[in-house]
Amino acid sequence: MDLYLKNIEAFKVTGTEEINGNKTTVVEGLLTGDSMEEALKNSGIESTTAGLGISTEDLVTLMDSVEGMPVKLWISEDGYVMQYELDMTAMMQGILDVMSAVEENPITISKTLVHMTCSNFDAVPDFEVPAEALAAA
């Protein structure tokens, strides 16, 4: 989440909402350049597009052609990102444009959103760290 919080451009507070009983501030902005590229790599898009016959070079070209990826974050009063949404419409349309370049009837995407809700922060039960792990640290 730090990637989004540190690199979102032109962000603005657009409201408040309750997520899973937590009051949140809604922040929206644009992820661009290297930050957008890193976010997409972290999403696993490279392995997905490789399976579709799109090379890493094609993917880099697509990322360069997209002005930015709209991001929406719901941040709790404690600073946790309770929910986030990435609008990947332009990226996915670019991928389909490459795939259907020779098609007579190209495919058009109206909207592609990745939406995730987070919960149970710090809810890991107590455990004992093995001695060999402690010794290796």
How is this structure best described in words?
A five-stranded antiparallel sheet has the order 1-2-3-4-5. The protein has 137 residues and is α+β, with helices and mostly antiparallel strands. The longest helix is centred in the last third of the chain and has 11 residues, at 89-99. A hairpin with a 2-residue loop joins strand 1 and strand 2 (22-31). It has helices spanning 2-7, 33-42, 45-51, 56-65, 89-99, 131-136; strands at 8-19, 22-31, 69-76, 81-87, 113-117. Helix content is 36%, strand content 31%.
Question: Which features would summarize this protein structure in a list?
Answer:
137 residues, alpha+beta, 5-stranded antiparallel beta sheet, extended
Number of DSSP helical runs = 6
Q: Give the overall shape.
A: extended
* Range of helix content: 25-40%
Widest sheet: strand order?
1-2-3-4-5
Ranges with pLDDT <50 over ≥5 residues? none
- Report the count of strand segments: 5
Strand content: 25-35%
Q: Indicate the radius of gyration in whole angstroms.
A: 19 Å
Q: What average pLDDT do the residues reach? A: 82
Topology of helices and strands:
Elements: H1 2-7, E1 8-19, E2 22-31, H2 33-42, H3 45-51, H4 56-65, E3 69-76, E4 81-87, H5 89-99, E5 113-117, H6 131-136
Antiparallel strand pairs: 1-2, 2-3, 3-4, 4-5
Q: What's a quick, concise take on this entry?
A:
With 137 residues, the protein is an alpha+beta fold. It is built from six helices and five strands, in the order αββαααββαβα. It has helices at residues 2-7, 33-42, 45-51, 56-65, 89-99, 131-136, and strands at 8-19, 22-31, 69-76, 81-87, 113-117.
